[in-house]
Amino acid sequence: MIPSALEHVREIAGGSGRAAVLLDYDGTLTPIVSQPEDAWLSDSMRQTLRELAARAPVVAILSGRDLDDVRRRVNIDSIVYAGSHGFDIAGPHGLRRQMATESLSNLDMAEKELHEALDGISGARVERKCFSVAAHYRNVNEDDLAKVEQVVGEVAMRHRELRRINGKKVYELLPDVAWDKGKAVLWLLETLGLESRSGGIRPIYIGDDRTDEDAFRATKQRGIGILVSEQSQPTAARYSLKNPAEVERFLRALGAALT
Q1: Is 169 buried (19+), middle (13-18) or exposed (0-12) by CB count in 10 A?
Q2: Distance CA 21, CA 39 (A)
């Protein structure tokens, strides 16, 4: 098991005491729940983020959720939000970027096909986001899991301009372009003038899902990746935290360590 971030806070903060803090949402800032709409940020976590944003050059949340959804759930104006796995970015002072807008019609068709094939499977849930369409199967009976995977695979085969990613109890179709959370992180660091090699600012990325591995790899040479998981698993992250409660403890300690 990689070491706990709670035991290495000052080392993670770095000698400059300046860090860009980038975070996933579900499973990182909030526990994973049966119904995604029930994953609301706690008041104490919101206050922790607000205090951290006052100390760090940037705090950003990169989520698979729609941009407006994650922004509404966090509700802090001073931080950056990236929805749809980094395809839709917005932040203070007019910061804005959207990727692959030409793929929206393809996503519309894939959404329609997934609904037609999955609406009859109990527990299956199709969720359209602006830049992706997700098929959730957390509440699907085990006997129907193979059918859900088959349907998503068939839709993906019909829409080669989209790519499938596998998350925690969810399959998701995204535009098949060279963009992911890692590239979104690098774009943010460059656009905001926070590249650590020139500015002494260390990027710290915290996440729990497979999509977060792209960000861990992107920041490995210049910053720190922290995996949120109670189990040992292959990862490009350097440190770990067990759950959102430990993430909150770490963020409070990190804020105190930043100058």
Answers
A1: middle
A2: 21
Whether 148 contacts 137, CB under 8 Å: yes
- Could you give the count of Cα atoms lying within 13 Å of 128 in the half-sphere of its Cβ? 13
Structure tokens at 4: 């706990």
Active site residue 24: yes
Distances (CA, A) of 89 to 131, 181, 234: 11, 11, 29
158-198 confidence digits (pLDDT tens) = 999 999 999 889 999 999 999 999 999 999 999 998 875 54
Beta-bridged to residue 204, according to DSSP, are 21, 224
As a whole number of Å, the CA-based R_g of the chain is: 18
- Please tell me the distance from the alpha carbon of residue 65 to that of residue 171, in angstroms, as a whole number: 13
pLDDT digits (tens, 9 = 90+) for 65-88: 999 999 999 999 999 999 999 999
Instruction: Give the burial string for 199-208 (b: 16+ CB within 10 Å, else e).
Output: eebbbbbbbb
| Under 8 Å between Cβ of 97 and 89 | yes
**Do residues 205 and 217 make contact, with C-beta atoms less than 8 angstroms apart?**
no
Q: CA-CA distance, 22 to 181, in Å (whole number)? A: 10
> What is d(CA 247, CA 230) in angstroms, rounded to the nearest whole number?
12
In the set 24, 26, 88, 212, the catalytic residue is 24
Amino acid at 15: G
